[in-house]
Amino acid sequence: MGQPSKGRFMITVTPDTFALTRTFTISRGSKTQAQVLTVRVTRGGVTGWGECVPYARYGESLASVTRAILALPPDITRHALQTALPAGAARNALDCALWDYEAKASGQRAWALAGLAEPRAVQIAYTLSLDTPDAMRAHAAQNAHRPLLKLKLGTPDDMPRLEAVRQGAPKARLIVDANEGWTPEVYTHLAPHLIRLGVAMVEQPLPAGADDMLAEIARPLPVAADESCHGAASLAALKGKYDLVNLKLDKTGGLTEALAAKAEAQRLGFGLMVGCMVGSSLAMAPAVLLAQGAQYCDLDGPLLLSQDRENPLDYDAQGVHPPVRALWG
User: How far apart are CA 323 and CA 33, in angstroms?
Assistant: First the structure.
């Protein structure tokens, strides 16, 4: 994988806000806008950029991530970055910016620099925000034409929501994300109903660190680790509890570690899901490379925005297409 020649970067960090088309709610709260950080690295007239979404669940804020990035030496390389910052949003934005810089400086695409095959369009899941059963039924009906719907759940009262979504989209494949919101008792009660309603997979039903029960019960419904899964080193401890792992660049700390985590997940026999925080096409672009060959791709962030970056990702019936050069990589 190529590295830029030695020298000092000008590194800038800019907060950006993207309004959402509708309130987005998960078990931990709601938002009406996506607050992201845009990181640019410039040297020799070439600028690369990346985006991250600081996440309070992991103790991150716009201010803390900005400080972490600006404290780095201006001659930082992508290789040195992997140990200079821990996995998380700060390392992600800078790692992806450095990938973009390397691609532009070399005249090659990022996927070629990474030794990957040319990427293709990937089918995506479209997310239905946690809401009342009636609202989720209506939202499901509006999107019943989509091949895969992802339900945000995670409360003790999710059964009516499940029934309502299935009524609204009787033919769509369904996956469920509880965002750590269920107890073992709630999950044990819901699991057979998830299967009855044709749910294909459930994501993070129990809190990270309190999920040992998953190793003790039968899992006729595949279970994916999200909050329990970060970089490659976190995966071995998930064996026996999870069937898939959800890799997100803001958790792995960038594309570099995400590619290593993908290889380790495959070595350990996990299925692969590639997800995202709610961000723009710039945040999704490197993840499209990661999502090649994944069983599930949840890179629908831009579809939830009322505005996006210039040269945005193309979404159509095939799913999400790889980024054009003008966007990233």
Answer: 23
Active site residue 251: no
- Coil vs helix vs strand at 316: strand
Q: What share of the chain is helix, strand, coil (3-state, %, to 5)?
A: 35, 25, 40
- What is the rounded CA–CA span in Å between residue 79 and residue 54? 22
Residue 32 to residue 269: CA distance in whole angstroms: 38
SS3 100: helix
- State if pTM tops 0.90: yes
* Position 203 pLDDT exceeds 80: yes
Among residues 104, 150, 152, 262, the one annotated as catalytic is 152
| Locus of tokens 């009406």 | 32
Catalytic residue among 104, 150, 248, 251: 248
Tokens of 69: 């990035």
Tens-digit pLDDT profile for residues 85-110: 999 999 999 999 999 999 999 999 99
pLDDT tens digits for 29-71?
A: 888 999 999 999 999 999 999 999 998 888 999 999 999 999 9
Q: Give dist(CA 2, CA 20) in Å, integer.
A: 37
Assess whether 171 carries a catalytic annotation: no
Q: Which residue has the tokens 């991250």?
A: 52
pLDDT digits (tens, 9 = 90+) for 277-312: 999 999 999 999 999 999 999 999 999 999 999 999
Structure tokens at 135: 């609202």
DSSP 3-state of 85: coil
